[in-house]
Amino acid sequence: MSDLNHFREEEQAEEQRFEWVLFAMCVCISAIIIAFVIFVIGMTALIGHTMLQRRETIISILATPKRLRRTEQRFMKVSFC
User: Fold this and answer.
1) Integer Cα distance of 50 and 75 in angstroms
2) Is the pTM of this model over 0.70?
3) Terminal alpha carbon distance of the chain
4) pLDDT tens digits for range 28-80
5) Cβ–Cβ < 8 Å for 58, 75
6) ∠ CA 25-29-34 to the nearest 5 degrees?
7) Packed helices 2-62 and 65-78: angle between N→C axes, nearest 10 degrees
8) Residue 4 pLDDT exceeds 80
9) How buried is 22 (Cβ within 10 angstroms: 0-12 exposed, 13-18 middle, 19+ buried)?
């Protein structure tokens, strides 16, 4: 009878270890997914900001002073910064 109880205790302990390992894996996978999402959002914002700066630079080079004023007014309405 003692062997049977000992076997059950070992089985429960092994099952509990497995549950903790499974929980730890889920936490790690979730952390990796969250880090990837934050990375993608950051890169998207950086690329958008860079493209907006390039666009402003190109327009300021090509535009005449009269057009430039109108273009800047449009950018002031549209820009996110």
Assistant:
1) 14
2) no
3) 74
4) 999 999 999 999 999 988 888 787 777 767 666 666 566 556 666 666 665 55
5) no
6) 150
7) 160
8) no
9) exposed
